[in-house]
């Protein structure tokens, strides 16, 4: 039996390029339209070939292809970087990152803003710390989403890299993200480093999005600090008002029942409830029998078309 010959470098190069659109074919072949048509039907684009080279961790092949893709540098780079991040191919990542190196400041800024899509998540999932670090340093990533994933998967080193990479000593950005997305993992992890002044805002964000667990955690942990800061805030920015305006009845009831409206008069909140809240909360806030500021309350209900509130009042 005839043994198969081992594939050498020349064979490999031929196998790669014979399926590549735009490859330099012999003149005799190019002169035959019917053959060229068949080749074009099955040929691979340069972009597809580059992605295949990246997935195979074939640095030499990728290096030869990249110069032909200058006209679509950003799109190609993002796709290849995601592949490298998924598999942990740092050499592929480094090659493409270096190749995608604008010379002017505007180009560099555009590269940073283009971001890395979900490549950071792929690198964290795979435990590829070197690529995680390089992505954080060179691209505009969703740091908080990456932190949430790192904490979820127990990737402590990745979480540490994120904290070091983000210029946010009081963790305000992470705090807001956690409140918006309902991530107790991130919230608890950044809580101790947070500014007291930023907690009411986070609580309002959580209340608006219906994240009861986070509202309850913040209120129980720092109730006195929150209420002290609350006195200086606009009524519409307070957590209880945020819950009312976004129809988060359970959170509104919890804050109301636990005195989560600081020392400011309830008259202001009654106006907010009448204008923006459901009837259930209108009834709750008026059950004390106090009828102060009724004209303003009624007018705000009317302006906002709250017929049920108007009938109740």
TrEMBL record:
Gene3D superfamilies given in the database record: Ankyrin repeat-containing domain
InterPro entries named among the record's database cross-references: Ankyrin_rpt, Ankyrin_rpt-contain_sf, SecEffector_AnkRepeat
Species assigned in the record: Phytophthora sojae (strain P6497)
Name of a matching Pfam family: Ank_2
Superkingdom of origin: Eukaryota
Protein name in UniProt: Uncharacterized protein
């Amino acid at each position: 039996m005839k043994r198969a010959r081992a594939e050498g470098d020349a064979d490999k190069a031929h196998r790669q390029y014979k399926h590549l659109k735009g490859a330099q074919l012999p003149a005799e072949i190019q002169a035959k339209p019917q053959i060229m048509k068949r080749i074009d039907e099955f040929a691979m684009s340069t972009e597809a070939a580059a992605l295949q080279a990246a997935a195979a961790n074939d640095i030499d092949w990728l290096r030869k292809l990249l110069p032909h893709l200058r006209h679509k540098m950003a799109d190609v780079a993002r796709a290849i970087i995601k592949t490298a991040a998924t598999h942990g191919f740092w050499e592929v990542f480094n090659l493409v990152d270096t190749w995608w190196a604008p010379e002017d400041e505007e180009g560099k800024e555009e590269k940073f803003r283009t971001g890395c899509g979900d490549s950071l998540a792929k690198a964290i999932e795979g435990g590829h710390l070197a690529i995680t670090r390089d992505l954080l340093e060179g691209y505009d990533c969703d740091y908080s989403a990456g932190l949430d994933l790192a904490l979820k998967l127990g990737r402590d080193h990745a979480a540490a890299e994120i904290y070091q990479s983000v210029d946010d000593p009081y963790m305000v950005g992470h705090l807001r993200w956690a409140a918006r997305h309902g991530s107790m993992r991130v919230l608890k992890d950044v809580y101790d480093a947070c500014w007291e002044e930023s907690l009411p805002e986070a609580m309002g964000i959580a209340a608006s999005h219906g994240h009861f667990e986070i509202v309850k955690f913040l209120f129980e942990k720092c109730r006195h600090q929150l209420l002290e800061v609350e006195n200086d805030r606009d009524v519409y920015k307070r957590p209880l008002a945020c819950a009312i305006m976004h129809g988060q009845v359970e959170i509104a009831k919890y804050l109301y029942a636990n005195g989560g409206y600081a020392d400011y008069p309830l008259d202001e909140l009654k106006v907010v409830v009448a204008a923006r809240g459901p009837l259930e909360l209108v009834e709750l806030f008026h059950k004390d029998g106090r009828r102060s500021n009724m004209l303003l309350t009624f007018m705000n209900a009317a302006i906002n078309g709250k017929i049920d509130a108007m009938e109740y009042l």
